[in-house]
Design brief:
alpha/beta; 9 strands; about 35% helix; Spore Coat Polysaccharide Biosynthesis Protein SpsA, Chain A; about 260 residues
Length: about 260
C-alpha cells in the first residue's frame, strides 16, 4: 500500500443528447471524496442542451469537447482517452452515477496492486418497472477474475478503470458501435493484462429505454459488433468464440458461428 499515492484520475464520459441525465452523472463526480480528478466529457455531436448543462457547472476540472456526430461509441471513448492527462482513466457513462467513494476505492486498488492494468468493481443496475411504476435496483457483485469465463460471457461490466498507458496500447476498435466494453475487456485479457477486482458496489448503472445497448439490440448494431469481435478474436489471437459467448454478447439470440466468423 502506498499511502502517499494520489495520482490524477481522468474520468472520461461520452455523451450524446443526454441533457436530461448528464447533470446527475457530473454531480456524482463533483461529490467524490477523492479530489485529484479531471472530468473529460466527449460529446458526439449532440443537438440538445447538453453543452449548456455542462457549462452551468462552471468547474475548471470539467472539460467539454464536442465532436461531429459519428454514432460510434468506440471513437468517442478513444477521443476522450487521448485527451486524458491522468495516470488512470475511469469509465463513466452520461446516464449513470458513481458512489462518492468510487474514485478513492479505485486509487486504493491500484496502490495495493501497482502492476495492475485494469480495476473493476461491483455495481447496481437500475431500471424502471413500468408495471408497478417503480425504480428497481439490483446488485451485480464483482467476482474474481477468470480468463475462461470472460471468453464465454461478459461478466465484468464495462465501467472499469484502466491505466492510461494500457488503454492507449490497446484502444477500442473504432468499428464498434455498441459492444466496445466487451471488445476492450477481451483484448486486455488476451494480451495478458492484469485485472484486479474491488469487492464493493460503487456505481449505479441506469438501464435507460433509449440506451445504446437496448437500441443496439433492436436495430441490429449489436449483431454487427459481434461479427467484428469474432473476427478480432480469430485473426489477432487465434481464438474461436463459443456459442455461449455469442449468446451473452447479443442477448437471447443465437448466432451461427460459421456465418459470422
Amino acid at each position: 500500500m502506498r499511502p502517499d499515492y494520489r495520482p490524477l484520475i481522468s474520468v472520461v464520459m461520452p455523451s450524446w443528447n443526454r441533457d436530461y441525465t448528464i447533470q446527475n452523472s457530473i454531480r456524482s463526480i463533483v461529490d467524490q471524496t477523492y479530489d485529484n480528478w479531471e472530468l473529460v466529457i466527449v460529446d458526439d455531436g449532440s443537438t440538445d442542451a447538453t453543452k449548456k448543462v455542462v457549462m452551468n457547472f462552471a468547474n475548471p476540472k470539467i472539460k467539454f469537447i464536442q465532436l461531429e456526430h459519428s454514432g460510434f461509441i468506440s471513437k468517442v471513448r478513444n477521443a476522450g482517452n487521448a485527451l486524458a492527462k491522468g495516470e488512470i482513466i475511469v469509465v463513466h457513462d452520461s446516464d449513470d452515477q458513481s458512489f462518492p467513494d468510487r474514485l478513492q476505492s479505485i486509487v486504493d486498488a491500484f496502490a495495493e496492486n501497482p502492476d495492475a492494468d485494469l480495476v473493476y468493481h461491483g455495481m447496481y443496475q437500475r431500471f424502471y418497472d413500468h408495471y408497478n411504476n417503480a425504480i428497481v435496483r439490483t446488485p451485480k457483485e464483482a467476482v474474481p477474475f477468470s480468463k475462461e469465463r470472460l471468453l464465454r460471457e461478459q461478466y465484468i461490466p464495462g465501467q472499469v478503470a484502466y491505466k492510461t498507458s494500457a488503454i492507449l496500447d490497446t484502444p477500442y476498435d473504432e468499428r464498434i458501435k455498441c459492444c466496445d466494453d466487451y471488445q476492450m475487456l477481451l483484448e486486455f485479457c488476451l494480451k495478458g493484462k492484469k485485472f484486479v477486482p474491488v469487492f464493493k458496489n460503487l456505481y449505479d448503472y441506469v438501464n435507460s429505454p433509449d440506451s445504446v445497448n437496448i437500441n443496439g439490440e433492436i436495430d441490429g448494431r449489436r449483431r454487427k459488433d459481434v461479427e467484428v469481435i469474432l473476427s478480432i478474436l480469430k485473426e489477432k489471437y487465434g481464438v474461436e468464440a463459443t456459442a455461449e459467448m455469442v449468446r451473452n454478447t447479443i442477448g437471447s439470440e443465437i448466432v451461427e458461428i460459421n456465418k459470422v466468423s
